[in-house]
Amino acid sequence: MSELNKEVVDLVWGRPTSGGVxxxxxRRWTQGxxxxxxxxxxxxxxxxxxxxxxxPVQAFLLKYVLFNKESPNWRHISEEEQKFxxxxxxSEILESACSSPSTGYCLVxxxxxxxxxxxxxxxxxxxxxxxxTPEPESSQAPQELQPTTVSAxxxxxxxxxxxxxxxxxxxxxxxxxxxxxxxLTWRGGCGVLLFLYSVILTKGIENIKNEIQDxxxxxxxxxxxxxxxxxVNLFVTGHAVSNVWDxxxxxSGMKLHGIHKQASVGFLTLMESLRYCKVGAFLKSPKFPxxxxxxxxxxxxxxTKERSLVGPESTSEQARRVFQSFDPEDNGFIPESLxxxxxxxxxxxxxxxxxxxxxxxxxxESLGIxxxxxxxxxxxxxxxxxxxDSFPVYHYNGLKQSNHNERVEYVEGTxxxxxxxxxxxxxxxxxxxxxxxxxxxxxxxxxxxxxxxSLN
Length: 456
Known about the structure:
By secondary structure, this protein is an alpha+beta fold.
């Protein structure tokens, strides 16, 4: 691992000008993948920062429990089911990040004989403490044995990086077997960082640098400790691109990378409601009805079992996506000179005379622009989307302090997707609702609790 240490550290933590990486930020990231005592399929996050890893892992874990395994009692899975769910989820994320199966999958754990030792003054370990837990010397150690623990303060940034070991497995079957044998390592206090490094080295440092927009921007913010959008995208899509729109865009001669195919789980952000960005259809309409929700500082997850929400892309949805790809500024219109290109991209009749006729019809006032609404109405009249008027939803926030009574539990509710007319039911204007309105503009939410769930 030593020859890769500097490259990995620079990519993840940046190159601090003085004093190295903040001890407090490093400590916030030294936690493992631990399940809530109150919600057996929910992971806990102890402090701000590692949600950029924990929230995507939670989203994929829910996909496994709800749709891959189809556990009937998904809120009360056993310890053995937790183990299988977590290891299967981590394997899937590593598989997605792997650029080429021929290069294999990298697993970062403790070097043999170099595992941290417990401090003689260490207090008994509790879930709320941030501690590093090494794996047992033998991967065959009994599950019930508790490995030694050492506080993150005792381990420290430099010591942590001096005792890491990288190994490569070639096949998927071998990967899944190794992931299971390292279960206690992923649960241990440094599990999140060890898995993050495993994903980075499986993807390849150069591959990540080629995808990131600004290679000088580290994956973890050195001031606030939050993960970057590139880090979130790497976990969600396997590609460390910095943007959330569909496809690539040209800007002042620069090629800006976006999302290139439909993601398994989605992403919505409050930042879109504030017009700071525009999330594309590949993230807004994932394969499974699970969405990571972004606020200014945190990531949580909204999910439902209603599969009809994520059916195949309709022709009108495809038309909207293609039209918007020619409207990178998200103005809601394109210059009329681009109408022919849009029509060709959608396999519509695009002979010159017909295009001229459509320009006159769609731009009767000769303003030189084509609006999205009239375009869709002309070529793709309103279709029945098949989306139910209401469906049950659940919201997950891994931070204890963001949950009622500091118990990490799903908040249940009902979503009502209404028409553009004034809805009969109007709920509070909460951040969760504003975030979801970027996908369903006329959504209303009725929660079963007195308090709305928190995005932060």
